[in-house]
Design a protein that fits this description.
The chain is mainly beta. It contains 2 helices and 28 strands.
Length: 427
């Protein structure tokens, strides 16, 4: 099926899969076209300021309340959304998730690596990896705890949502705000990627300040789906995430039965290859904040609950300076992942696509010794970094790690070796 999209981040949208399914004069008239049920989905408090008030009206075949009681899925929770509990000040790095011969859908294919905060505190995030090779079939997912930001690493994926269908591929991100029902179905044989589960303020575009109107991610490149719906009866299951636990409820119809909708609380995708990188043409290495795509602000201005930053292909043209990321100790915590290519601060290997690294608050980090020596002695002519895409989930809170993140074969226990061979040049 050919997909069409409405564009524009943070705007008010409307879409209908059947003509005149949307009421023209009021949100919830006494009787709607086609006998649809009006239902409001709120992404913020009712009294939030107009600039941050998030909601959508859904006109659906059946109201969402038509399902059986939820029952706990304790064993599935223990295998997937495990709670990060272990404090570790060391620099940490991980391999990709190992291959498996098992048939795994999205519900079973998630592994939590690290995180902080939680839905009760309304702050922080958890970082998950996914590896899936099967469609969800008669199962649907709904996260009441946080927003899901998907970073696709390998394999195209179809996201079926209450608002319509989003098709995405590696190099793109997809955001499913909390409270929405959806499916994640692989299009390729095996699909892998990263998820930031955001418990804090909803994502928004960062302020641009002196950059002006045209830098970084442009709102017109964010795409939302056109209304599409299922009118199917049968034995279906909603798997909901509430306060860190998974629950199951039976439902006699597909919950993706929204015929029309309007509002500004919608799922969306963004192509990271459209990011307008701002870099220096003079000297010194700019701070990584210039690579911020989306931000979840905290109650402290300038210190984010979650900044999503990327390090895409770009020209390096600064003069008389060290070009790769500098040695650094940050008041924020940094989880990094690699979608494809080689990260310019880790040319000696170890930081590979599908893997990740963690540098907690004030944990020293920077280029490995090989990258440092190459950059120090390089001819500083204009150079373009190509075929690379790394990203960072930066948070003001320290990350804790899960039991799974400490397993042999997944955790690289020799990560710190990459910094042990620096020569003493001082004379």
């Amino acid at each position: 099926m050919e997909l069409n999209y409405l564009s524009g981040f943070g705007n008010h949208f409307s879409s209908e899969a059947r003509p005149q399914a949307l009421p023209l004069d009021q949100n919830s008239p006494q009787k709607t076209q086609y006998g649809l049920y009006p239902e409001q989905l709120s992404g913020s408090a009712f009294t939030a300021p107009r600039t941050s008030n998030l909601y959508s009206w859904l006109y659906r075949i059946r109201p969402s309340v038509m399902h059986k009681p939820f029952t706990p899925l304790k064993e599935l929770t223990a295998k997937t959304f495990t709670k990060p509990e272990h404090t570790n000040p060391n620099q940490m790095r991980w391999n990709p998730l190992p291959p498996t011969n098992a048939t795994v859908s999205f519900v079973e294919g998630i592994k939590t690596v690290c995180g902080n905060g939680g839905p009760a505190e309304l702050q922080g995030l958890h970082v998950h990896l996914y590896r899936i090779n099967q469609a969800m079939g008669d199962k649907f997912f709904m996260n009441a705890d946080g927003d899901f930001l998907f970073v696709l690493q390998a394999g195209a994926v179809q996201f079926k949502t209450e608002f319509g269908v989003i098709a995405a591929e590696p190099g793109e991100i997809v955001v499913i705000p909390r409270g929405m029902k959806f499916q994640v179905n692989p299009v390729a044989d095996v699909c892998t990627g990263y998820i930031a589960e955001n418990f804090g303020a909803p994502f928004r575009l960062p302020e641009l300040g002196p950059i002006g109107a045209n830098g970084l991610a442009h709102r017109r490149h964010f795409l939302s789906p056109v209304a599409a719906f299922d009118d199917v009866e049968g034995d279906f299951e909603i798997i909901g995430k509430f306060s860190g636990q998974l629950w199951s409820a039976k439902v006699g119809h597909s919950p993706l039965d929204v015929v029309a909708w309007h509002g500004n609380y919608v799922p969306y995708k963004y192509d990271l290859r459209k990011f307008n990188t701002i870099n220096t043409v003079s000297f010194d290495h700019p701070d990584p904040s210039i690579f911020t795509v989306l931000t979840s602000p905290s109650d402290t201005p300038g210190v984010a609950n979650l900044d999503f930053a990327i390090f895409p292909p770009r020209w390096m043209v600064a003069e008389h300076t060290f070009r790769p990321p500098y040695f650094h100790r940050n008041c924020m915590s940094e989880y990094m992942g690699l979608v494809y290519g080689v990260y310019d601060a880790k040319t000696a290997g170890g930081f590979v696509p599908g893997g990740g690294s963690l540098h907690n608050v004030y944990s020293a980090h920077g280029p490995d010794s090989e990258s440092f020596e190459q950059a120090t002695n390089a001819d500083l002519k204009p150079h373009k970094l190509e075929s690379t895409l790394a990203f960072m989930f930066e948070c003001r809170l320290p990350y804790k790690v899960t039991d799974f993140a400490q397993q042999d074969g997944f955790l690289q226990k020799d990560y710190q070796d990459c910094w042990q061979n620096f020569e003493k040049h001082y004379k």
